[in-house]
Design brief:
5 helices, globular, 157 residues, two-stranded antiparallel ribbon, five-stranded mixed beta sheet, 9 strands, alpha/beta
């Protein structure tokens, strides 16, 4: 099912880097900038999440928070987070269920059966769990427009 702006964001329950199970619903005291990355420690994903890290104060002052999801496991995500001093959770969707729920799955990477990853994507979700903004790239090397995300958050406040 394709998700669009105005749809309810699917809830999830995924492990963070400390093996704590986290749900989208627990973060909805603020808007959520939900960033799906292709793979922990890949250069473009590192650039993307470091940009969100460096924009944390501005994003937070606009009433939002960042959550990243990769289909890597919690240990790979933990090493990635510690290396880059990320100040937001990175959740592991290692069975790709949430990635499927958000309709951003790329299956069988390099023709390897069940080697899946997420399309690089950003969703902004409001406090009621409604998708306000959606950006999905077919090109895993393309970064989101960070200024567009900040401007969108500014417009919503």
């Amino acid at each position: 099912m394709v998700l669009n702006v105005g749809d309810s964001a699917p809830d999830f329950e995924l492990a963070d880097t400390d093996l704590k199970m986290r749900k989208l619903s627990e973060f909805l005291d603020k808007k959520v900038v939900l960033s799906f990355i292709v793979a922990a420690s890949s250069p473009v994903c590192e650039t993307e999440l470091c940009t969100f890290r460096d924009s944390w104060n501005e994003i937070s002052n606009l009433g939002a928070q960042v959550i990243a999801i990769s289909n890597d496991g919690p240990f790979a995500n933990k090493a990635f987070a510690e290396k880059n001093n990320f100040n937001f959770p990175i959740l592991g969707d290692y069975n790709s269920k949430t990635i499927r729920d958000y309709d951003i799955l790329v299956p069988d990477l390099l023709h390897l059966k069940d080697y899946n990853f997420a399309k690089r994507s950003v969703f902004i979700i409001d406090e009621n769990g409604i998708i306000l903004y959606k950006w999905v790239s077919e090109d895993p090397l393309k970064e989101p427009n960070y200024q567009e995300i900040i401007d969108f958050l500014k417009k919503g406040n």
